Amino acid sequence: MRRAIFPGSFDPLTLGHFDIIHRGITLFDELIIAIGINADKKYMFTLEERTRFIKEAFKDQPKIKVMTYKGLTVDFCRKIDASFILRGLRNPGDFEFEKAIAHTNRKLSEIETVFLLTSSGKSYISSSIVRDVIRNGGDYTGLVPDSVRVKK
Question: Is the pTM value of this prediction over 0.90?
Answer without folding.
Answer: yes
